[in-house]
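Lecture notes, unit on protein representations.

Consider one protein chain, 84 amino acids long.
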Amino acid sequence: MKKGLHPENYRQVVFKDMSNENMFISRSTIHTKETIEIEGVAYPLVKLEISNTSHPFYTGKAKLVDTAGRVDKFMSRYGNRNRK
């Protein structure tokens, strides 16, 4: 393996899933501006939109996200084809 490819500045970072408030600590080199205090220790904070605790593949719960009526538009065009 080539030397000097991997960063040397790993540190513990808190990743927070904003959809369900779940947090986990992992090592990372990511740079953040926010910090959070857990059990008296300040950690850098990275906010996530989705993680394995909220992703439908891992939870088994499918969410239907409708953006500007796209689902309704699709259903009006193609939704009734199997009912004939």
